[in-house]
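Handout, section B. The chain below has 105 residues.
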Amino acid sequence: MNCYDCHAAEGADTPAVAVCHGCNSGLCPGHLRMTRPVLHRTNGLGVSHGSTPARQILCVTCHAARTGLPAPSAARCDPPVSPVPAVPGPGPTGARGGAECPAEA
């Protein structure tokens, strides 16, 4: 398995060392983010938690989504399937006039 973010950004085939807990994409050491959440479980009438925080591996995009930070965009995007719209409407630059791919902006 290869790192999805390396492939999306550069087209590189970097071996993955982990899998994202959120989206299950392969991650290399440069693209993974590790969090240490405390897990809570029901224990009788109260809530108990372990003394050691769990380990959770996330990709940059899922980590940004969970923390509320802006996600970085990929440097390379695949071209649209049909560059010319079949019906009248916004062109390849999109409805707002900007490029569809953040890397093209």
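Note. The longest helix spans residues 60-67. Compare this with the example in section A.
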